[in-house]
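Page 47, continued from p. 46.
Same chain as before, 116 aa.
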Amino acid sequence: QVQLVESGGGLVQPGGSPRLSCVASGFAFRLKRMSWYRQSPEKERELVADISPSGNTINYAGSVKGRFTISRDNAKNLVFLQMNSLKPEDTAVYYCQVTWNSRDYWGKGTLVTVSS
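Result:
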C-alpha cells in the first residue's frame, strides 16, 4: 500500500532553515510527481511546491518562492523540502502528497512551528 512518512519538523526560530523529508513506498516513486502541501488552523491546505518525476520541472507557491527548495532522490524514494528564511506565517503542518491510480495519498504530516 502507498505510504508517505514526513519528518524534519519542529520548533524553529524565525530565519531558520530546516529540511523536511518524505519517504515513500508502495508505488513507482520515480514515475510520479511529488508535492508538499501545508495547512495551518487559519488557512485551507495549500500547495507549497511540487516536482516532476525527473526533477526537471518544479513549481512553487508565490509565498515561498526564493526561500524553499524542493528536491528528490529517486534511488531512495525520498522527497525533500529545504526551507530557508522561515517566517512565523510559515507555521503549519506540512504534508507530502502523491496521486497514484487516480487517488490522492497523504502522509500524516510534520508540524513546523516558527517562533522565537
